[in-house]
């Protein structure tokens, strides 16, 4: 990481003391900082630099131009434009009441969460910065009894700079052997933007983080249940119908595109069956995530998997299989 970035951050790092607001804070004097404060500042600077989020939001009022016979004039609006400070790219237009959460403030909160819960931090951004995310790792889990059955687990904090969503926590996990990613949004931090102090933000973040951990634990429990449940023709049909929504009554009436998608999914299933050494609902779910991760797009696209169509497909399949597991009776005809 560039020393200049670190030095710049330390020089400009605000004093997040109780009761201060973003507009009133002053830079810290490094000569009076403790070793702990310096390390915290470096950790925040490292996280921003390593994740490509070492930039801030420029919040500018928007005006309209009106030209008539008397000349042109500017008309005020109730909207504001949000721009990246490094390249001045417009990320979104928001209303007068929207509150910006700067990347360094969110990174600061995640570094403080790490000091509470441990784990490793990583992150990035989506859609050229319209959405920014940071992830804190949890202990790896093992699902099923096949070789290389590890699942990497993360709690994800996602923020939008285009006004499309509030700050929220979710869970993200990756199956090690195939790097299939499944993300689910679990908890919004509704009061996060309105907190003035670092301690208040951390308290709100801890609540959201703990809620997300509980939700993530339920996901892992469902994974274990999938791995021990037999697969049937009925659940395969439900998943395919819910994923691809074929409106035709029989295969002959399916569109060419839908047929191709189903055939691609069948290929994903066969790969997972071979990799897992058997067939169960965990194989079926991994066939879905393999399809969305590695086949639906030419390259793995985190925007697709965390907020886009891949995210929706994964969630539809997950919910379909979980509901199936919870049904008291199931058809037992094997595919």
How many strands appear in the DSSP assignment? 8
Helical fraction: 40-55%
Q: How many structural domains can be distinguished in the coordinates?
A: 3
> In angstroms, what is the radius of gyration?
24 Å
The percentage of residues in β strands lies in 15-25%
| Low-confidence regions | 13-26, 331-335
Mean pLDDT: 87
Biggest sheet descriptor? 5 strands, antiparallel
End-to-end separation: 53 Å
Secondary-structure element order, N to C: HHEEEHEEEEEHHHHHH
Strand order of the largest sheet: 4-5-6-7-8
Counting helices, strands and paired strands, the structural category is alpha+beta
Shape: globular
Question: Can you tell me about this structure?
Answer:
This protein folds into three domains: 3-54 and 98-224, no CATH class; 57-94, no CATH class; 229-326, no CATH class. The chain has helices at 3-12, 35-50, 103-117, 198-227, 233-244, 256-276, 281-295, 302-306, 309-326, and strands at residues 57-68, 71-84, 90-94, 121-126, 131-142, 150-160, 168-175, 180-188. Residues 13-26 and 331-335 have low confidence and may be disordered. With 335 residues, the protein is of the alpha+beta class.
Q: What characteristics describe this protein?
A:
disordered C terminus; three-stranded antiparallel beta sheet; 335 residues; 42% helix; 23% strand; 3 domains; five-stranded antiparallel beta sheet; alpha+beta
Topology, element by element:
Elements: H1 3-12, H2 35-50, E1 57-68, E2 71-84, E3 90-94, H3 103-117, E4 121-126, E5 131-142, E6 150-160, E7 168-175, E8 180-188, H4 198-227, H5 233-244, H6 256-276, H7 281-295, H8 302-306, H9 309-326
Antiparallel strand pairs: 1-2, 2-3, 4-5, 5-6, 6-7, 7-8
């Amino acid at each position: 990481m560039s020393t200049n970035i670190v030095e710049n951050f330390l020089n400009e790092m605000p004093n997040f003391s109780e009761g201060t607001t973003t507009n009133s804070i002053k830079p810290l004097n490094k000569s009076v900082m403790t070793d702990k404060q310096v390390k915290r500042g470096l950790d925040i600077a490292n996280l921003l630099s390593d994740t490509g989020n070492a930039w801030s939001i420029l919040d500018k009022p928007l005006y309209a131009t009106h030209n008539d016979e008397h000349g042109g004039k500017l008309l005020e609006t109730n909207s504001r434009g949000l721009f990246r400070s490094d390249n001045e790219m417009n990320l979104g237009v928001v209303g007068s009441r929207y509150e910006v959460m700067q990347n360094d403030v969110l990174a600061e909160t995640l570094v403080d969460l790490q000091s509470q819960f441990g784990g490793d931090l990583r992150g990035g951004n989506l859609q050229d910065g319209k959405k920014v995310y940071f992830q804190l790792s949890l202990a790896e889990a093992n699902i099923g009894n096949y070789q290389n059955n590890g699942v990497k687990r993360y709690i994800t904090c996602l923020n939008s700079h285009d006004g499309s969503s509030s700050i929220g926590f979710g869970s993200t996990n990756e199956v090690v052997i195939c790097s299939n990613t499944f993300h689910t949004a679990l908890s919004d931090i509704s009061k996060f933007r309105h907190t003035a102090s670092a301690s208040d933000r951390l308290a709100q973040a801890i609540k959201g983080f703990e809620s997300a951990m509980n939700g993530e634990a339920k996901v892992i429990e469902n994974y274990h249940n999938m791995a021990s449940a037999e697969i049937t023709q009925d659940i395969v049909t439900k998943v395919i119908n819910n994923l691809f929504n074929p409106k035709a009554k029989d295969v002959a009436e399916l569109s060419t595109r839908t047929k191709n998608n189903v055939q691609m999914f069948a290929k994903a299933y066969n790969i997972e069956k071979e990799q897992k050494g058997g067939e169960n609902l965990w194989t079926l779910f991994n066939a879905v995530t393999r399809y969305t991760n590695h086949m639906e797009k030419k390259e793995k696209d985190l925007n697709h998997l965390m907020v886009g169509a891949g995210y929706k497909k994964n969630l539809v399949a997950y919910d379909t299989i979980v509901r199936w597991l919870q049904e008291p009776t199931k058809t037992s005809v094997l595919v």
